Structure formats: C-alpha cells, structure tokens
Amino acid sequence: MNFQTLSKDIGLDEEECRELLTLFVETSLHEIHAVETALGAADPSKAAEIAHSLKGAAVNLGLEECLDLAVEMEATARSNRLSETALLTAEFKKALETLAILARVDI
C-alpha cells in the first residue's frame, strides 16, 4: 500500500491521513486484544461482533487487507472455528504493524 495513494483515495492530506491511521491502528489493537480475550473465553459471538466492527472501520478507510481479514475473522467466529479466527487475528495484528510503519505510528 502506498501512503500517498491512500491519502488521496480518502480525500485527506498526508498529515490528516496519518492521524486517522494512527487512530485506526490504536483502536484496532485494542479491538484485537478484545478478540483474543473473547477467543480465550470461547465466546465466538463476541469475537464476531468485534470483527464486524473492525470490518466497518477498514472499509471506511479503504484498507483492503484489513477488510479481508476482518471479513474472514467474523465468518470463522460465527462458524465457531475459533482456531482459524485466532490465526486470522494474528494476521490482522501483523497488518496493523505494517500500517504503523507506513504511517510512522509508534505502537
């Protein structure tokens, strides 16, 4: 993903886009922790609910990789395939790390 293209696609200057990505990364890391907690408690409905929220945030920003992962996280949680959901959660976390580097966000 190209940061300048992302800024242009969502209609923000680079600094505004960086601030928005910072908020997305920070919020999403909190949400991912909540998914991990839900998975640890064997609560697939809570994990799916949080994944759905992540999906909405990703689609609003045009973050395709995060969107695809959130869609799969939600689907696997709803199907009670928690080990798959856990793997997707780890992939989502890696995608957030990449975004943080791209936007120069400390996480």
Describe this structure in words.
- By secondary structure, the chain is mostly helical.
- The chain has one domain: HPT domain (Four Helix Bundle (Hemerythrin (Met), subunit A), Up-down Bundle).
- It contains 5 helices and no strands.
- α1 crosses α2.
- The mean pLDDT is about 90.
How would a textbook summarize the main sheet?
Answer: none
Average predicted confidence as pLDDT: 89
CATH homologous superfamily name? Answer: HPT domain
Low-confidence runs of at least 5 consecutive residues: none
Oligomer: single chain
Structural class: mainly alpha
**What is the CA-CA span between the terminal residues?**
19 Å
Q: Using the coordinates above, name the CATH class.
A: Mainly Alpha
Question: In the CATH hierarchy, what is the architecture at level 2?
Answer: Up-down Bundle
Q: Please tally the helical runs, counting DSSP H or I stretches of 4 or more residues.
A: 5
Question: Tags for this entry?
Answer:
107 residues; elongated; mainly alpha; 83% helix; Four Helix Bundle (Hemerythrin (Met), subunit A)
What layout of secondary structure does this protein have?
Layout: H1 3-9, H2 14-40, H3 44-61, H4 64-78, H5 82-103
Helix pairs in contact: 1-2, 2-3, 2-5, 3-4, 4-5
Concise account of the structure shown:
With 107 residues, this protein is an all-alpha fold.
